[in-house]
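Two proteins, back to back. First:
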Amino acid sequence: MENSLKSISVFSVLLLLIGGCTFAPYTFQNTVVGTIEEIEIEEKFFMEDEFLVIEEENRQPDNSLYTIPVSDSEAYDVGQKVKVDIYSNTEADVWDLDHMKFEIEVMDE
């Protein structure tokens, strides 16, 4: 019985440590203002992944397109100007959608 309790305690601590890395808080990273150039829909087995491809205003060569996941691509149109606030829950300087959240605002022209 005592070994069981020790095992459960060790397992619980490991879950907390692993969970702490996975569920780190999101912090603001950047804002991108640009135009929706394309709406991509990738069909999966029972669902679809939907993305906006945004070309940044005042862009620098080779760093101008951003692919942003959305839950409802029908709310957007190609050619719309948008502002995207980018949040990340990792310190790594990588474009990793598993560690990012986005707030998208359609801008009036």
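And the second protein:
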Amino acid sequence: MRTWSGWSAFIPAPVDIVKKRGDAIRINFKADYIPVENGTVSMAGYNDLEKIVTALRG
């Protein structure tokens, strides 16, 4: 069975903006975007999440 560690990060932006920008980044596995109060939680593999957060920082 294949397993991988997942990580999450809070991003203070609406889910539609985060998902659109996050989906444009080339990553190894699909990321999940969960709307929460005042922002979005992004969940992805460690290296993928780092790429997403770095790209969203601009």
